Design the sequence.
């Protein structure tokens, strides 16, 4: 495996030192201005005269300077000569709402360059726009680092002990777990900034370099979080301090009741701290049992330092990486199947539905007796199943048949007799059309959709008329038909009814029945056409002055419509 060259590594180290020095400089010069709390550390400052940070308040925009610390966000609006007093948004709860946001004048969401940050679900969010004429990477970087701090506090609240837990007094080093977790988040942000400075541009995926945010929603992330919790909070029990506290009556808390988690160096993570539901999962229990079984043998030099073996964190990260690779491959196939344009997707759907179409066509051939011998054999077999009352075996037989086909295909695949192209679908790309042609095609499609919806609504309104007795003649006919069908179903066994339905379906197209069947359906159509629809009252529209479209100028509305049409029709322009 080829590693980094010395030049690349040396450049990275220099950039990392530069990031840390810049933090120290901001800490000395801006701590008093921002009114930072004791121990609060500045992580990143967003200020750029050409591409400022702008805070949106309704339709008002305030450019200014944004500062991220390990506890909060600070925004200082620009004034004529300096900055106004900073406003603070707390991030220490661990349940902040952070997501991408579109902004624009007059309420039109046209610029995808902002984030929305709320310290808790029911608080007023900040809308922060990161002006970047080169794309969305600057916004994505700030979104990632803000989420990293929020996820770090979520991790502390979920996997760490409470701050006032009396057991922390008896565990050597456990009190520093919170600081270790925040230091990990701070260092991961510094690494991201150093890489971006080294490359001279923002990363394509900033979250991939962040410790907590990159794995929060990933598979097997719970194992990584659990091992990180053991790394940060596990400590050695100070028995003398505990005995002294109990003898003085200070506390009688038992540090741990049940199975504690053990670090590589013998440090203990108490079971009473395992309040996260993931500790009770089967995957978690198997993971820690495997460690106790001796999987991670080797020379232990310290916590997370093992020679000739794997640490708990190594095993958890490997499990996470393996599942992530599988998911990435699956996602790649899904992304490849997402075709642009309605015609291409229609062609793909037709290709996927081809087996079912073939089955339907062959079934119609059976009904029309195009091959009398095959139809007669199928009908005799179906009647035999019905007469022998074997219907209860039909569904299990279908399942077993499908399983047998899968086993056969799997065996052929394992033997290498099925190539990689087996099962691959091929469609022909549609010729390019201009925007006007696409709009006309969309208009025709919408007209067909409107016609279909009208027919469906009319059918439902007619059924409503019959059900609510608004047309007594039709209701009476339906009533007598239902009574007759119910009486027949009550006294005649179901298998005989099913046999009658089979005979009816397979003889409907024969010459001696064709005329009578056509007359029957003509009478049904005449009866259906005479049923009136239930009246529909259309009320005037409600006041829509608060909707987004009401605030949009006509030009912006037209641009929004054209953009939506272009995206839906797969236009890359």
Sequence:
């Amino acid at each position: 495996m080829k590693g980094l060259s010395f030049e690349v590594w040396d450049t990275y180290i220099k950039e990392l030192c530069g990031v840390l020095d810049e933090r120290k400089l901001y800490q000395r010069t801006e701590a008093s201005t921002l009114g930072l709390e004791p121990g609060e550390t500045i992580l990143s400052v967003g200020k750029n005269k050409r591409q400022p940070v702008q805070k949106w308040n309704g339709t008002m925009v305030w450019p200014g300077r944004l500062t991220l610390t390990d506890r909060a966000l600070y925004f200082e609006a620009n004034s004529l000569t300096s900055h106004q007093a900073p406003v603070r948004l707390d991030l220490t709860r661990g349940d902040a709402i952070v997501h991408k946001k579109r902004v624009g004048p007059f309420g039109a969401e046209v610029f995808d360059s902002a984030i929305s940050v709320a310290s808790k679900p029911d608080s007023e969010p900040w809308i922060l726009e990161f002006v970047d004429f080169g794309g969305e990477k600057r916004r994505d970087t700030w979104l990632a680092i803000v989420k990293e701090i929020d996820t770090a506090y979520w991790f502390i609240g979920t996997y760490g002990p409470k701050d006032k837990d009396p057991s922390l007094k008896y565990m050597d080093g456990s009190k520093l777990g919170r600081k270790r977790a925040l230091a990990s988040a701070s260092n991961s942000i510094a690494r991201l900034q150093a890489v971006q400075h080294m490359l001279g541009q923002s990363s394509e995926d900033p979250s991939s370099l962040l410790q907590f945010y990159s794995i929060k929603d990933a598979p097997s992330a719970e194992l990584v979080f659990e091992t990180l919790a053991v790394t940060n909070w596990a400590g050695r029990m100070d028995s003398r301090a505990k005995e002294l506290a109990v003898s003085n009556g200070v506390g009688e808390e038992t540090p741990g009741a049940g199975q504690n988690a053990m670090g590589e160096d013998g440090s203990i993570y108490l079971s009473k701290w395992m309040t996260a539901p993931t500790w009770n999962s089967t995957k978690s229990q198997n993971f820690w049992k495997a460690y106790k079984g001796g999987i991670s043998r080797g020379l232990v030099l310290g916590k997370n330092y093992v020679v000739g073996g794997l640490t708990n964190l190594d095993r958890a990260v490997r499990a996470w990486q393996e599942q992530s690779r599988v998911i990435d491959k699956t996602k790649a196939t899904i992304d490849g199947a997402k075709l642009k344009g309605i015609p291409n997707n229609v062609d793909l759907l037709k290709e996927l539905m081809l087996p079912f179409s073939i089955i339907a066509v062959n079934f119609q051939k059976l009904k029309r007796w195009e091959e009398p011998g095959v139809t007669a054999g199928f009908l005799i077999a179906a009647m035999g199943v019905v007469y022998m009352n074997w219907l209860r075996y039909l569904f299990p037989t279908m399942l077993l048949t499908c399983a047998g086909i899968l086993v056969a295909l799997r065996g052929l695949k394992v033997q290498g007799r099925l190539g990689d192209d087996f099962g691959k679908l091929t469609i022909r790309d549609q010729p390019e059309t201009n925007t006007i042609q696409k709009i006309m095609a969309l208009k025709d499609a919408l007209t067909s959709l409107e016609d279909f919806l009208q027919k469906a609504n009319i059918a439902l309104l007619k059924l409503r008329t019959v059900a609510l007795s608004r047309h007594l003649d039709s209701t009476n006919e339906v009533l007598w038909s239902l009574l007759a069908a119910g009486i027949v179903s009550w006294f005649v066994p179901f298998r005989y009814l099913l046999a009658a339905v089979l005979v009816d379906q397979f003889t409907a197209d024969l010459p001696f029945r064709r005329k009578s069947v056509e007359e029957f359906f003509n009478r049904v159509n005449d009866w259906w056409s005479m049923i009136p629809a239930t009246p529909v009252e259309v009320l005037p529209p409600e006041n829509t002055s608060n909707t987004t479209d009401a605030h949009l100028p006509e030009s912006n509305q037209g641009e929004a419509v054209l953009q939506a049409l272009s995206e839906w029709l797969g236009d890359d322009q």
